[in-house]
Amino acid sequence: MRYAMVIDTKKCVGCSDCVVACQTENNVPIGYCRDWITERVEGTYPNLELELRSERCNHCENAPCVRCCPTGASHIIDGGIVLVTPNECIGCGACIESCPYDARFQHPDGYVDKCTFCHHRLEKGQLPACVSVCPTKCMYFGDLDNPNSEVSQLLKARKHKTLAPEAGTKPHVYYLI
Amino acid sequence: MQYCILVIDLRFMGTSRRKFIKISALGFGGVAVAASTMESLGVNAYLEGLALENSLEKLKQTATYCEVCFWKCAGWVHSDNDGNIHKIIGNDIDPHCNGRLCPRGTGGVGMYTDTDRLKKPLVRKVVNGEETFVETSWDEALTLIATKMKDIKSVYGAESFGLLKHGSPGSHFEHLFKAYGSDSIAEPAYAQCRGPRETGFGLTFGSWVGSPEPTDIRDTKCLVLIGSHIGENMHNSQVQEMSDAIDNGATIITVDPRLSTAASKSQHWLAIKPSTDIALLLAWMNVLINENLYDKEYVEKYAFGFDELKAHVQQYTPEWAYGVTTIKPEEIRKTARIMAAAAPATIIHPGRHVTWYGDDTQRARAMAILNGLLGSWGRRGGFYFKEKISIPKYPHPPYPTPKWGWEEIGEKYPFAEMGITNELIQASIPSEENEYPIKAWLVAGTNLNNSIPNKKLLEEAIEALDFMVVVDTMPMEITGYADVVLPECTYLERYDGIRSATNREPSIALRMPAVEPKYDSKPAWWIAKQLGERLGLQDFFKYEDFKEVIAWQLKQMGTSLEEMEKIGVKKFPRESGPMYLDEGQDHEFYTDSGKIEFYSTALESQGFDPMPKYTRHPEPEPGYYRLNYGRSPMHTFSRTVNNPNLNDLKSENDLWINPKVARILNLKKGQYVWLENQDGVQSSFPIRVRVTERIRWDSVYMVHGFGHNNKKLGRAHGKGASDTQLISQVAIDPIMGGTGMRGNFVKILTENPAKTVEV
């Protein structure tokens, strides 16, 4: 089992529903976020390309945050999900520095917080909150080890990319372009 | 050519700003505790804890439909027994949302939790020689209002008490006003928003567009957007269907001077010169007709005035349009051919907020005629025949007949189909010629200060009023002008009328309270009933709780409150016939000719152009830029800016400026500037500069709804600029009275022009 998220930038309108759904689902304090929208504009008027995408922890296979964690609070569980155990975290911030995606932040309670792929929902057979609310249905979630899963099929059929591939992190969040 | 790449992480642009927090709570002691907890719970303590929490979680689910915007998506409110709302999730079977709410619906919980809400009834009183609001009891406030309503009725007639409204609360007050004898009712949703398209499409097809729009985007092959920014306007099911259309390989053509989100999803973005849309629409007609690309069979069978139209559009060649619109002739021809190739599954979308330049009904007519030429009305992938189910009227005595009402107030505009707010406001200013004097207002759920242009006129009218009541959930600007302010509870705390809207198939949705009203707030139905009883109109309010009305209505419809509480949304079979025309089917349109009117005899009879023409509109003087405005997906007008969840996503608006302009004016990204319009009106608050290639060099752009000046809106006050404040030039649509608002021009000031303004 290798969980992955596939996001279709051709459909994302950057509405931030994923952000607010994550905040209410995971009780993320106002002023913080585990996912966010990035806008990329290329060219000059009127020859322009605009890409909107929802970003979060990439749940990297080769996760620098896990390697640098001094207490083991940052760890990878079955399915390849990168998690932080709050009561093991000393808030040193090494993982925040090491993440090429700036996906981690210090929770006001002191520990480091980030996207969990809504692991607690997956256990109940539900999709991550962001995926489940997205009005454009531009987000897909599933198992890369299953060649018939929607995510595997999409990655087979469509041109895609990951973010900062040069960092060698092997992300599990893919963007259809 | 110069090439630039700009990547913006919206977290740091104010969308979701993350605070920098110093570690303070965790010291060595904290680590020791953490270590011992870790030993006892094991490595996956966090997840086990979450799983446990979830299994213990017994959240109640209550049916609602959203009131954060007018799309009214149905959903489920998840709350606990302590009155905490955890989340709001869309109802899977609802055609407005298909189980997926938009950010505003998901963040609707902030309407409930906002601590800046109105909490107690307030009455304007003079204390120590100064006017101030004093908290009062509901009884005192309601009795005062009822007394004033009686006074106005006996001195001037009930007609002189006007109602300005929006959304669900409005309908409860509409019932009260009609029972009281006033039909002097208007809402900004018409003359400041979608009125022109309703009139324009109505004159052409004999049918309103209505809401949700009957655009068959799901099955379209070609979607044409004229300044409509679907995706930034978060009209849920339309956004969803546009996404489906992208999946299905539909072509999208967007006409917009700004690279909107929709434009960025389009194969063809026509970066038009602002205010010239009608020229492009006429040139498209010219191509469709002269290249024989229009749907001949459809036009012959259903349309009236084709020959006149053909003769009329000969002058509007693509070459002519190039000089007006800056869109190249070959681009005009190419896009016209694409539309024709996809027809009848082509939609020239009617848009929503269409009060732009004062000839907006004619622009809507041009769009409607194009749809007619392409044969898309009543065709799959074009426009479907919508249907809704009517909700049985709860029994009450007949309403009295007022001597005059919204129709008379707006009589200068023969094709107005609803009350014209700006005319009702004008009628509130005493003058010799004013035959319909309005003396008092009840304002329900609409912040007029941020929706009505021409602030001077609005303030003059308010100044002249004998009495004004505002009902709202939040201390919006308009509350500051009221004599009495009534705190309404939010949609999450009340029953409201059953939602029935036009769709592919009829459906209804239930709204019931998920939690008790916070503070001393009350539902609009209760306020209307209390006022009715004090006015001796108790026969119009024969129920203790609005729940009884809903239960009775649902029973008449063959369902029940109990059933609706479980399902939230119920669909009904269509009764009006198929959604699309069969080939060669006879069909009568509700127009004078019974046909689709390319040539409008109705318009002609009132002295208007029977077919749309291009008119030149004012352009900016040197140093000024056209002020364009629009929506962001996380806000609805000005009403959500203080919502803690939505404010967190976007707390202020930005002024979009083309890099060329920024270079000339020496403006930098992130810098704050002030604006001054052509009439010398200045923005009260500064606005942050966003230098972006997404906007033309002749205009600037901002999201509507910001720049609140009521300090009681703790999060929203002083954040960003208000476009409405800068709209002092209004081009009135002579056909239906709409207020064209895009003919305002601003210059950019780098210093605060009014040092004395409190920020």
Over the alpha carbons, how many angstroms does the gyration radius of chain A reach? 16 Å
Unreliable spans of chain A are none
Instruction: Please report the number of helical segments of chain B.
Output: 24
Number of helices of chain A: 6
Class from helix and strand fractions of chain A: alpha+beta
How many strand segments of chain B?
A: 28
How far do the termini of chain A sit from each other?
Answer: 25 Å
Q: Main β-sheet of chain A, in a few words? A: 4 strands, mixed
CATH topology description of chain A: Alpha-Beta Plaits
**Count of distinct structural domains of chain B:** 3
Biggest sheet strand order of chain A reads: 8-1-10-9
CATH top level class name of the largest domain in chain B: Alpha Beta
Mean pLDDT of chain A: 97
Biggest interchain interface, per-side counts: A-B, 66 and 84 residues
Query: What's the architecture of the largest domain in chain B, going by CATH?
Result: 3-Layer(aba) Sandwich
Whole-number average pLDDT of chain B? Answer: 93
What name does CATH use for the topology of the largest domain in chain B? Rossmann fold
Q: Uncertain spans of chain B, ≥5 residues at pLDDT below 50?
A: 12-48
Strand order of the largest sheet of chain B: 6-5-16-15-14-7-8
Structural class from helices and strands of chain B?
Answer: alpha/beta
**SSE run of chain A:** EHEEHEEHEEHHEHEE
Pfam family, one (chain A): Fer4_11
GO molecular function, one term (chain A): metal ion binding
Protein name (chain A): Tetrathionate reductase
Keywords (chain A): 4Fe-4S, Iron, Iron-sulfur, Metal-binding
